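Deliverable D5.2: sample structural annotation.
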Amino acid sequence: MADSLGFLSVRQHAEHGYFGGFLILNAMARPLEFHCTLPIKPSRAQVLLYGATLNDFVCGEQIGQALLKKSKQPPDLILTDCPPVLALNHVSDVTTLLLREDSARQPTTSLTTPTSATPTRKVRVGDQDFESPLDLDCSTEVITTILDGLASHFELQEPFQRIVEALMEAHPIVRAA
């Protein structure tokens, strides 16, 4: 049974940069911790040097790693709706999987979800599809155990909506843009 499950989302604003939010929930979908970042805007040199891998670097290695370090107790598993956050797997021991959000459910805001050029593979656990980096060896047994410990009413997509709303509340300038 899972003690906690992390939900990490990153959104990008054209003018202000990247915003990250990390919500850690218990098995009953109640919040244990929430952390968010100030806007991160890559330098022109970073944009040029990182090229197609810039989003992976900023979202996974910078924002994801910083948010995970802020947590008092790392979660058993991290889910994300932002493909570049999967780069967190390369700098963390906590497995991070992508759970694609239904685009029809995404609220219309000035924030967008960054994309990634890194190839992924599908991982099916029960009736749920996830994606992981090609080079990540993830155990579906461990993931199944964690997900089986969740309350029956726990909807995996819903926490991402909470994160985006919290980011908009924490950074009012984005709301006004």
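Annotation notes: The mean pLDDT is 88. The longest strand covers residues 5-13.
The annotation will be released with the project's public dataset once the embargo ends.
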